[in-house]
Amino acid sequence: MAEKPVEELTEAEARAELARLAQAIAAANTAYHMLDAPEISDAEYDALKQRNTAVEARFPALKRADSPSDQVGAAVADGFGKIAHRVRMLSLENAFASEDVADFDDRVRKFLGHSGVLSYTAEPKIDGLSLSLRYESGVLIQAATRGDGEVGENVTENARTIADIPQRLTGAPEVLEVRGEVYMSHADFAALNARAVAAGDKTFANPRNAAAGSLRQLDAAITASRPLRFFAYSWGELSQPLANTQFEAIQRLKALGFQTNPLTVLCDGPETLLTHYRLIESQRATLGYDIDGVVYKVNDLALQARLGFRSSTPRWAIAHKFPAELAWTELLGIDIQVGRTGALSPVARLKPVTVGGVVVSNATLHNEDYIAGRDSRSQEIRGGKDIRVGDWVQVYRAGDVIPKVADVDLSRRKSDAQPYVFPILCPECGSEAHREEGDSVRRCTGGLICPAQAVERLKHFVSRSAFDIEGLGAKQVEMFFKDQTLPVKTPAEIFTLASRDSANPLQKLKNRDGFGEVSAAKLFAAIEARRTIPLDRLIFSLGIRHVGEVAAGLLARHYSTWEAFESAATEARPGNAAWAELTAIDGVGAVMAQSLVDAFANLGERAAIDALAGELNIQPVRARGPVESPVAGKTVVFTGTLEKMTRAEAKARAEALGAKVAGSVSAKTDLVIAGPGAGSKAKEAERLGVEIIDEDAWLRLIGG
Ligand code: IVH
User: 261 alpha carbon to ligand 1 midpoint, in Å?
Assistant: First the structure.
């Protein structure tokens, strides 16, 4: 059957098409990478990927969390086996001061008996985790973490999901181990944490932790959904040299298809190294990923070989580290910001200071306990020292973007400094700010009458996982919120913007600063396009505390229609039937239910919700419905080779029948389906007394 052109797809068709493509591409990846038995040609594979990209470009809002455009390959990992490195993975000696760099050059030249100027490469030291990739005959066969340098963890399936890592190489030595750093960009890290917050999950402290946590996932599908990157900078075992110099070897890796760092240069002698160090340091803040120094390596590989290694570091390289990103400055004031859910967050206003190349004038102070020198369990932090306006405070930038206040210098405290009194009224609207038992956060009780909450709610409403209206971001929301002629104070007013604009012949949006005929028309069209919205997105968009993206999905699938959801949220009260039904949803607890009920019972909120619903065409979400099958609710594990279908297909079918497919065998496993070549998993199942059946028995069991 001919495929419908992407331009002609309706939204519903596009959604189904993206699901189909994700499945087809995943199946092709498994066949190719895991089973070494490609089922479709490279051209067909490319066509699937291109179509997926085209559909996503037309319907960006429909892009799936497991979008194939964010990944290469995907599979269930086999647990982490151990891999002994054939060439040890070493670490680097550190240098901190310029003199250390001159000393390094002296030592190297002395060792070699070299009196002239030596050539070195200089490149950023990426703050991620190192990975060794083994290629044989140009095919990626193994990926291992550094581990203790001798033995690392087998993360092959996870590494296959990283787009920067080529699966095949042309023109490479028969055996080639490429080494480099897996990392996450600042933007991807921020987006990942934002998704985690929206889903009510734990966030990562910095991009390095996020990269490490993502690579070391037992389920490669999770790694695949994380935007990891890779820079190649070194190598292990080789059947043939890559080049005569370090610089050329890196260029060779680049030509083979690896990402290499564009700030890698050749330098003669320590002075030029220091010049490049300063250049890289000056660019540090704008690189978009974390680096923690500059690595210098002797360029001539014959000289590297002569220099050799100490116990755990090469003599031919050194890492010139950046100074710690810490600074002391004066705390000029403490402002309170009010967030979407009314949380009062204290922000330190600082005398501007440079921290790690970035000028910092604001930093978070977390909450009132943190200022007082306590943690959430009333235990002392900072030795119990509180923070006062006028104090000298230590500011630091960890890997993440928001600077923090770490410490306070009591010896410089002025004698008249007063302890900070945390407000008990909302500074934005004057409502009482209440702190619930066990909550470290004080919250404004003003709801939508609080302008700060209202504007933050609007920002949430238009955010990516919510209405995601093109051309209407946080900045525009702030502008419309304050606007005199065309104000937007509630979500419903977004959908009356166009009609209000056309009803006002005098001050048209198209004549405003920042808008023209085209951009105004585009904005109205983008808003119109979102008037039809699936129920789950709408529920998430309401920005109700404790109701994140996952919860919104659960609620939408349970109630299916807006009418059913709305009447449940209106009627439910602890003890009645509607409450019992609501809290019986797997994943919905009493706290979330209460928060939902409170929102619908609040007059102001309710009016805003009703007005919004009146503007929209809300698409029902189909319930997944309980699956009736002999394997529903069971946890199954596939191991060994399947002969009747691909792993991906077997997994999809099992899941469609309500089973959970796990990657490893544990006490929770109900059934193991073992094909030829099954190894450790089958043994583990035997040990645990888990039932093991073959593929035919499985097919009989599921009736197919
Ligand atoms: S070279 C034999 N180059 O830093 C030397 N390492 O502190 C091999 N690293 O384990 C390493 N960026 O994880 C090298 N441009 C770079 C690097 C780099 C980051 C990491 C690597 C290594 C650690 C040593």
Answer: 12
